[in-house]
Each structure stands twice: as C-alpha cells, then as structure tokens.
Amino acid sequence: MTTSLIIPAYNEEKRLPQFLDSVLDYKKNHPNHISEVIVVDDGSTDKTTNIVRQKITNHPNIRLIELSRNRGKGAAIREGVMRATGDAVVFIDADGATPISELPKMIDALKSADIGIGNRWISGAHVHKSTVLRHFAGWVYKQYMSLFGLGSIDTMCGFKGYKTDIGRALFTDLLENRWLFDTEIAYKAIKREYTIKNFPIDWESKDGSKLDTFTLIKSGLQIFPLIVKIKRNEK
Question: Which residues lie below 8 Å from residue 60, measured CB to CB, with a gap of 6+?
C-alpha cells in the first residue's frame, strides 16, 4: 500500500520547516511508508511556499499545491486528497503536534479499515503540554459530539487517513471548508457505514495554534445546522 502524506499549511513559516525536516528524515529511513509528500499551501501570506520550494530542490517526492486564497483547512486537504497518487491518503498538521513517528499506527489501521483516526482521548494516548482550559474545552466538545453519534471519534485531531477511493468519495461533495470539515467527514463516514479504526497517539500542544478556545466554542454552535444540511444532502 502506497501512502500519500498531505500537510495543509497556512502561514506556517515558523513551524513547518522543522516538522517537514522530520518527515523527510522519516521518509529516508522508511522509504516504503510514504510514496509522496503533498504540502497544500492555503493562500499563505508569509514565506511558507518559499520554504517548501527550497525543500523540493533536493527532495523530488515533495509536491506543492498552492491555493490562490485562504479557503480553509478542509478545502486544502480536499485538494490534496483529490490529487494524491497513493493507495491511501493521510493528512497531518504542519505544526508537528502529532509526530511523524506515529505514522506506522496509521498504516496498520488502514490495512484492516477504510479509515484510520488518531485519538487523544482513548487508553494508551499521551497528551503533552495541553493547558487545563484546553483540556476541559476538548472534553466538553467530546461530550457534545456524542449527541451526534461521534463521541468515540477525536474529530478535531489533525491526524487522519483514508483509503484513497474512500477519501475521495467523502471529500468530493465537502460542505464545510474550515474547522468543521472533520465533523462532516466523520458523520458521513458513519452514515455510509465505512469501517473506522481509532488508535491512541502521542500528541503535543504547540504554540501558535489557530484553533483557540473561542473558535472551538463558535464552531460547536455551528455543528447542528451542519448535521441537518449533511442529512439533507445524504438523502
């Protein structure tokens, strides 16, 4: 199984270089785990694209997709999924909150399931440097998601993988381009009865996160209308 690794990036000139180096080192040591690295620049206004172009010079297996304007994380990942060439597509956050060393867990998950999801809330997971407020907000969010049948899924974790045909089927008609795309994809996956494997991961809260507590609360209020829209479309 060949794997396309997708890294969505928006104004990540400070955090992306170190993480991208770790990905390239991992690929060098595990050449069969990653067939291509796709960085999708979501309309950055900093030096993110220049950094990726410099890496491409020495690493031909890196691909850069540039969006002309900021469209949202969901839209960026959709572009990567649609252009991937691997048998499986895996996306991972540019800040390195989930280290690339967790990739073998994803590869194992996708051997037996349609979808693999890194989970910070199940037994065996290790969360580092998370503030009490953020941890509490995440717990509340998890309880809220259980009302929609998604309580067992860490919808906001930026480490998920799909067999490519499944990923394309889920992302083709994406309604939510920004933070709630994870919720939409997970809800549609359950309704379509795809097999999902959750697995515990190591995860570290990174400085500079674009998803603050206020945004999390605001997004939570938008979930019910989104679910209604998805149900209508799924019919």
Answer: none
pLDDT in tens, 100-115: 999 999 999 999 999 9
* Cα dist from 37 to 41, 44, 166, whole Å: 13, 18, 19
Q: With H, G, I as helix, E, B as strand and everything else as coil, classify residue 52.
A: helix
Among candidate residues 165, 138, 164, the one with its CA nearest the CA of residue 153: 138
Q: For the packed helices 132-146 and 213-221, what is the interaxial angle rounded to 10 degrees?
A: 10
Instruction: Give the separation between CA 29 and CA 1, rounded to whole angstroms.
Output: 17
Q: Which tokens is 73 given?
A: 């994380």
Phi, psi of 195 (to 5 degrees): -80, 135
Tokens standing for residue 129? 């440097």
Q: 113 by DSSP, 3-state: which?
A: coil
Q: What is the pTM of this model?
A: 0.92
Contact criterion met (CB below 8 Å) for 18 and 42? no
Q: Name the token pair of 102.
A: 């967790």
Question: Which residues contact residue 109 at a Cβ distance below 8 angstroms, ignoring those fewer than 6 apart?
Answer: 116, 117, 161, 197, 199
* Tokens matching residue 49: 């694209």
CB 12 within 8 A of CB 80: no
pLDDT digits (tens, 9 = 90+) for 48-84: 999 999 999 999 899 999 999 999 999 999 999 999 9
Which residues, 6+ apart, have CB-to-CB distance to 41 below 8 Å? Answer: 9, 10, 48, 49, 52, 64, 65, 66, 67, 76
Closest CA to 8 of 177, 165, 126: 177
Nearest alpha carbon to residue 39 among 59, 170, 211: 59
Please, what is the angle between helix 223-234 and helix 213-221, to 10°?
Answer: 50
The size of the chain, in residues, is 235
